[in-house]
Amino acid sequence: MTKVLIKDMCETLRLYFIMGSNNCTMDPEYVLEQAIKGGISFFQFREKGTDALTGNEKVIFAKRLQSICQKYSIPFIVNDDVELAISLNADGVHIGQGDESADEVRRKIGDKILGVSAHTVEEVEKAIANGADYVGIGPIYSTTTKEDAKSPQGTTIINEVRKKGIEIPIVGIGGITAENALPVMESGGNGISVISAISRANDPAESARELKEAIDC
Ligand SMILES: Cc1ncc(COP(=O)(O)OP(=O)(O)O)c(N)n1
Ligand SMILES: Cc1nc(C(=O)O)sc1CCOP(=O)(O)O
Ligand SMILES: [Mg+2]
């Protein structure tokens, strides 16, 4: 799937689920399929941190999740690992400020989707100049999922970006639940990005439905 096939990036980004094997208390393939049934619109494969799979095990796991996404036409984005994304013909890549530079990644992946993490207006402007299709801004709220997360900043940066008239699609990330999701959209975000709210839920499909309802009203 290329950018051309994604009619409306903002709409597609609305409920963005991110997951790796160590984020789940249940079978990750079951969690992903349930999350899709509950209404997620975008998926990022993020296999990193304690006990994360590596090497061939990581590749096999990525392919399993990719095939579930393909079955339901959900874009499959790879976090950090540009070479893996290219070898799997993934729909795109998400990189942060400490990863490979965005302009270099854009050169490598052609017109596939490029997401970039940003924590300031300047980083958003640089991401746009380097060819980002969307930015992930966070942490909005406090999170324990990402070990090296920065301090929570609420929706301040999203507000600042929109006040400057910058129109790039934005997803908020970090500590987002159905209870606190709405301010991300009200401040000008196009979607919410979650890990634990779905991956650690007793019922991932129901959790995805609740998140969707929270931002659809
Ligand atoms: C949608 C989205 N936004 C932000 C991030 C964080 O990326 P990064 O800062 O590179 O941190 P890691 O996820 O690689 O630990 C993201 N992955 N997705
Ligand atoms: C992967 C990630 N990136 C963040 C950032 O601020 O850039 S916060 C984060 C973790 C999000 O997990 P949860 O939804 O469980 O809080
Ligand atoms: Mg990264």
Automatic annotation (TrEMBL):
Belongs to the thiamine-phosphate synthase family. Its EC number is 2.5.1.3. InterPro entries: Aldolase_TIM, ThiamineP_synth_sf, ThiamineP_synth_TenI, TMP_synthase. 2-[(2R,5Z)-2-carboxy-4-methylthiazol-5(2H)-ylidene]ethyl phosphate binds at T143, T144, T145, G175, I195, S196. It is an enzyme of class 2 (transferase). The keyword Magnesium applies. This is Thiamine-phosphate synthase. HAMAP family: TMP_synthase. Residues 15-198 form the Thiamine phosphate synthase/TenI domain. Binds 1 Mg(2+) ion per subunit. Keywords: Magnesium, Metal-binding, Thiamine biosynthesis, Transferase. CDD domains: TMP_TenI (cd00564). Condenses 4-methyl-5-(beta-hydroxyethyl)thiazole monophosphate (THZ-P) and 2-methyl-4-amino-5-hydroxymethyl pyrimidine pyrophosphate (HMP-PP) to form thiamine monophosphate (TMP). Mg(2+) binds at D80, D99. 4-amino-2-methyl-5-(diphosphooxymethyl)pyrimidine binds at Q44, F45, R46, E47, K48, N79, S117, K146. It comes from Metabacillus rhizolycopersici. It catalyses: 2-(2-carboxy-4-methylthiazol-5-yl)ethyl phosphate + 4-amino-2-methyl-5-(diphosphooxymethyl)pyrimidine + 2 H(+) = thiamine phosphate + CO2 + diphosphate; 2-[(2R,5Z)-2-carboxy-4-methylthiazol-5(2H)-ylidene]ethyl phosphate + 4-amino-2-methyl-5-(diphosphooxymethyl)pyrimidine + 2 H(+) = thiamine phosphate + CO2 + diphosphate; 4-methyl-5-(2-phosphooxyethyl)-thiazole + 4-amino-2-methyl-5-(diphosphooxymethyl)pyrimidine + H(+) = thiamine phosphate + diphosphate. Pathway: Cofactor biosynthesis; thiamine diphosphate biosynthesis; thiamine phosphate from 4-amino-2-methyl-5-diphosphomethylpyrimidine and 4-methyl-5-(2-phosphoethyl)-thiazole: step 1/1. The keyword Magnesium applies. GO terms for molecular function: thiamine-phosphate diphosphorylase activity. Its cofactor is Mg(2+). It holds the Pfam family TMP-TENI.
